[in-house]
Amino acid sequence: MATILFPDDGDDSGLRELLQDWAGDLCSDPKLQQPLIEATITAASSNPDLLEGLPVEVALFFVMRELVRSDPCGTKLEAGSLFPVDGVPSAV
């Protein structure tokens, strides 16, 4: 069973703060950091199996890192087309 990622009350500010720190470390372009955060949340929400077997924070970092690795120049992030056809980042 997948871990519940976002609280029912919608307060995910702690999660977003953590993701913002990582986005700043992984992506030097500030205008791409928010799309990276949103892409990470979308990937984790759409594919909870990506979070299986690891602490949530570790799994989210791996997802974000893979998103950056799959688009090192940020061109897909800018275009909003980061995910391949199946909607899942490759090999997390």
What does this 3D model show about the protein?
With 92 residues, this protein is an all-alpha fold. It has one domain (14-79). It is 55% helix and 0% strand. Helix 1 (13-26) runs parallel beside helix 3 (56-70). The two termini are 18 Å apart.
Please, what is the average pLDDT? 75
**SSE pattern, N- to C-terminal:** HHHH
Strand count, sense and barrel status of the largest sheet are: none
Backbone shape: globular
Gyration radius from CA atoms, angstroms? 12 Å
Main traits of this protein?
92 residues; mainly alpha; 4 helices; 0% strand; disordered C terminus
Secondary structure: elements and pairs:
Elements: H1 13-26, H2 30-46, H3 56-70, H4 75-79
Helix pairs in contact: 1-2, 1-3, 2-3
